[in-house]
Amino acid sequence: MITQALDVFINKYIDLMRENNSQLLVDFDEEWTSPCLDICRENVSNSVVTGETLEWRPVRQDVANSMDNIASALELEIPEELSIFFTRYYSLDLPAKTERGELSLIQVWNQHDFERLQGNLIAHVLMKRRLKQPETLFFAATDDDDFIVSIDCASSKVMLEQIGLTPKETLAESLTEFIDGLTPLAKSSSL
To answer: Which CATH number belongs to the domain containing residue 124 in this structure?
Structure first.
């Protein structure tokens, strides 16, 4: 189940950072706040200034977000696992590795970031349609800027996708299977 796979991965990431005596740190931006900051600090108050380094932590979304507006706008069925993936946590991107290399699981930092992500996903699907390629939705960036990791909307398989081309390589049969196979990396993320 995707919720369990994501919860386990995030807990492993947090534990790994602790084991490496690494803190989850981010430079505060008063115009780009996040619920991730509140869990590590009792009150992000007016005394915090832009540029100050604060601890952060992935936190469950407390808003009932959904991908229904994308599905409606595109007349496309969004794979349920992907919808849950993007609506479960607020977080910075999560670094991980597979047998094939390193990647970052794309996450949303706040509600505005969630809305921005949806716009990017819509643009991605429109590009795929214009190119007359199977529709996919991305959820991870690789260490090679020419490739992303996406879900095929028809099959829900996880694919390695070269930007602008039809995905040819299946990485996993499901998003749950893919996340279960990831190893978190002890790297700090940034905004």
So the answer is: 3.40.1580.20
CA distances from 141 to 89, 120, 130, 146, 160 (A): 18, 13, 22, 9, 10
Tokens 């996340």 sit at which residue?
179
In this structure, what token pair is assigned to residue 113?
């970031």
How many Å is the Cα radius of gyration of the chain? Answer: 17
Residue identified by tokens 């946590």 is 89
Q: What is the pLDDT of residues 69-106, one digit of tens each?
A: 999 999 999 999 999 999 999 999 999 999 989 999 99
95 within 8 A of 16, measured Cβ to Cβ: no
Q: What is the pTM of this model?
A: 0.91
Joined together, the tokens standing for residue 138 give: 């991305």
32 lies in some domain: no
